[in-house]
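2024-03-11 09:14:02 INFO worker-7 job=invfold-0412 stage=load source=structure_tokens
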């Protein structure tokens, strides 16, 4: 800015023409550097290669598996696993679309008792991982649980043959349990897009004779389709990633089949072949999400934008609307949270004796390392397109988020293969020269877990960092380069201080996601190494959910922090709280 003022001021007594020409030359050179910057392009390619390595490893192992088990897997395992996976994903997406969209529409358009509070509460079920929700509801609705026990006491029934009760350990039960904690993905997307819709578009529909519901179906819902498709895709990916819930509820999905084929049948090649099918399913899912959005873009063609006014719902209808909005929150958060709190208070000593403290420390260490590494790589891959404005750096930044779509079982398999190959090569080399065995340096350590966490949650870190970079004017870059700063020094001295809030938020999100990650941790953890997630899983596997409740409650409480931050950010942007 100072340089521009001096150049444009006719009375300037600043530097002479030669110095001004030198400054302009440096500015032009900086611009040329930003356009090419081979070092930053190489950095983008390196990060992308690190992300793509597990996928390439899975595909290679599937194609070169020694034992030809594919005919058996294709005829005996794959049909059931694929059917169960698709039914679970489609059912969960359908229920979450209904619950998330309807509650978002009511909260956005109407005023009724408790509306403002419910707007904040409806996002809280995201703090409860799907496997913890499954453990809680199986405790409540199983044969020995309080619901069936109370029914038998009330009606005098003595055995399960005396009555019929829905089985929670079934596909419909899994759909309802997972929908109860995943619907906020759709709610947040729908809420944001409904708030941003102009009242002008809705009023036109009303003047053409549409009722309130007719306006919703004809105008609001089509305009919200891209956001709803994105929310539904997140739900489907979380469903495909799940392992603990489907195992506990007895659903044979692809993730569960990969786990069983790998560890229970010791068939690594067969697991890689099933993982390849899962990768294909992920690609089809992303393509379907893109098709559902249809490339549609919505623009306001008038500057007379007005926020959507609330419509009052009085009397019993208002309380009915409040009850309808409260139902998903109660089912998805209140019931599991109260059960965990009761179990945790009653079994604190059992949990501590069972390794809670060491599991908590391990989780804290792993999540901190993963958050730091993901934020560092996210900063590099997000900053590279700003410096090297090429198509390659832009594509590399976009592709770096693909790891989030990988199910944990697939990611764990892909990470293990190259790390084990490196371990074997190092071990063979040391044996030849020193006669010693190095053992599992990488694949048997927490390095494998941190690597997998970074791949999976790099998209989470990059999203927050890119948002922070977009708020920094490119003029600062030009001014810094004109004053002699390199791209790296400008990042360190100028951008980094300005990005500290965004980096902190991104690190917090990665920290919490890593804290509750189960499938990847379960498959890659070193021997006798427990995290909070595996600590809870181990107790649930032997039907002692109450002993692991303290660990589960800790995970839930940690997950509440970023949800509060996320909701504040969304409410601040929309201006409709």
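2024-03-11 09:14:09 INFO worker-7 stage=emit residues=577
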């Amino acid at each position: 800015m100072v340089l521009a003022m001096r150049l444009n001021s006719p009375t300037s007594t600043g530097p002479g023409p030669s110095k001004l020409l030198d400054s302009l030359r440096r500015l032009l050179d900086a611009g040329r550097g930003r356009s090419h910057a081979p070092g930053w392009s190489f950095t983008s390619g390196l990060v992308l290669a690190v992300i793509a390595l597990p996928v390439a490893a899975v595909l290679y192992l599937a194609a070169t598996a020694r034992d030809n088990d594919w005919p058996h897997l294709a005829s005996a395992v794959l049909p059931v696993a694929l059917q169960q996976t698709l039914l679970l994903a489609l059912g969960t997406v359908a229920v979450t679309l209904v619950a998330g969209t309807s509650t978002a529409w009511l909260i956005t358009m109407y005023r009724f008792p408790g509306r403002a509070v419910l707007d904040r509460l409806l996002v809280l079920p995201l703090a409860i991982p799907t496997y913890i929700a499954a453990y809680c509801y199986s405790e409540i609705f199983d044969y020995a649980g309080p619901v069936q026990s109370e029914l038998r006491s009330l009606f005098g029934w003595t055995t399960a043959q005396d009555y019929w009760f829905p089985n929670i350990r079934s596909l419909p039960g899994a759909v309802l349990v997972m929908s109860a904690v995943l619907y906020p993905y759709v709610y947040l997307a729908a809420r944001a897009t409904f708030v941003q819709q102009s009242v002008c578009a809705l009023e036109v529909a009303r003047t053409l004779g549409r009722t309130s519901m007719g306006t919703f179906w004809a105008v609001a819902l089509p305009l919200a389709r891209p956001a709803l498709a994105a929310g539904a895709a997140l739900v489907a990916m979380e469903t495909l990633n799940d392992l603990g819930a489907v195992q506990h509820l007895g659903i044979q999905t692809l993730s569960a089949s990969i786990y069983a084929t790998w560890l229970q049948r010791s068939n690594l090649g067969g697991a890689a072949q099933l993982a390849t099918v899962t990768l294909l399913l992920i690609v089809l899912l992303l393509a379907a999400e893109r098709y559902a959005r249809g490339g549609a873009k919505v623009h306001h063609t008038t500057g007379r934008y007005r926020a959507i006014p609330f419509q009052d719902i009085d009397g019993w209808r208002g309380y009915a609307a409040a009850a309808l909005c409260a139902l998903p929150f109660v089912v998805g958060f209140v019931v599991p949270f109260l059960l965990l709190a009761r179990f945790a208070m009653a079994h604190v000593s059992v949990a501590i004796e069972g390794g809670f403290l060491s599991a908590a420390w391990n989780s804290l260490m792993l999540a901190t390392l993963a958050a730091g590494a993901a934020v560092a790589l996210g900063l590099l891959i997000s900053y590279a397109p700003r410096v090297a404005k090429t198509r390659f750096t832009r594509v590399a930044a976009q592709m770096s988020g693909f790891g989030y779509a990988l199910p944990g079982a697939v990611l764990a398999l892909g990470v293990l293969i190259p790390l084990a190959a490196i371990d074997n090569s190092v071990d063979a080399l040391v044996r030849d020269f020193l006669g010693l065995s190095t053992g599992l340096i990488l694949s048997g350590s927490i390095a494998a877990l941190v690597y997998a966490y970074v791949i999976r949650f790099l998209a989470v870190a990059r999203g927050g960092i890119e948002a922070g970079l977009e708020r920094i004017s490119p003029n600062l870059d030009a001014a810094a380069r004109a004053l002699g700063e390199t791209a790296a020094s400008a990042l360190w001295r100028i951008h980094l201080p300005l990005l500290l809030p965004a980096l902190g938020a991104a690190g917090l999100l990665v920290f919490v996601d890593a804290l509750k990650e189960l499938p990847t941790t379960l498959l890659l953890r070193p021997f006798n190494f427990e995290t909070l997630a595996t600590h809870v899983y181990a107790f649930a596997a032997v039907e002692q959910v109450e002993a692991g409740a303290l660990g589960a409650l800790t995970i839930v409480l940690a997950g509440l922090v970023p949800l509060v931050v996320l909701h504040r950010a969304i409410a601040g942007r929309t201006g409709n709280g």
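2024-03-11 09:14:09 INFO worker-7 stage=report msg="The first strand starts at residue 110 and ends at 111."
2024-03-11 09:14:10 INFO worker-7 job finished
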